[in-house]
Task: structure prediction
Amino acid sequence: MNSKKKLIAGNWKMNGGLAANEALLKAIIAGLGDGAACDVAVAVPAPYLAQVQSLTFGSAVAVASQDVSQHEAGAFTGEMSVAMLKDFGVRYALVGHSERRQYHGESDVVVAEKAQRALAAGLTPIICVGETLQEREAGQTEAVVKRQLAAVIHLNGHCISEVVVAYEPVWAIGTGRTASPEQAQAVHAVLRAQLSAASEHADRIRLLYGGSMNAANAAQLLAQPDIDGGLVGGASLKAPDFLQIIAAAR
Ligand code: PEP
Result:
């Protein structure tokens, strides 16, 4: 068992609205009371960063973005730079979420550039890796996640221990189909071994599990020795569920 603080990060995806965000965050912050045993973050749609920054100010909830540009500034319509994110108190940036890889064609190289850009600006990238159902059924899970992690393992001038890695089997995201604790732990152990080979500080790196984590299955997943938190989609939109997951992350 390792002793680092777990991290529970909600990913709102393209959900929310001014009124709904306020109700959700107020309920989460009230539910946390004096704080949480773990670190907590919410990755929110970009238009709501200012609102979420102000609602979470002084609370235990950190602000995360769902993406970040690999470019510094300039003619990149629709993109968000690290400097812009920092203006709104963003602390973590999701990088390489499978929906970005799938629908926006983000390659391992782009994911690495984004992670690099985030780190250079002092944001912590939450780098997502994971296999599709087809890849799992073809026995390629290990090879796929190792390839995705290898792309980010040597980030110029940065120690890999500064990142967070999220294992998110694509077949478990938004499907209600969760990896069993044993399946998830097996892949986390592979990732930990790969990180250990690259850095003497691998044990400091938080490895999150994501994929239909919910109030009912979180405790068992989070009890696995190499699962250091969760990246939570659907269940992060319901305060009671998100709070139960946070409570399970001790
Ligand atoms: C996610 O979006 O990263 C995710 C894990 O979603 P869900 O929890 O809904 O499967």
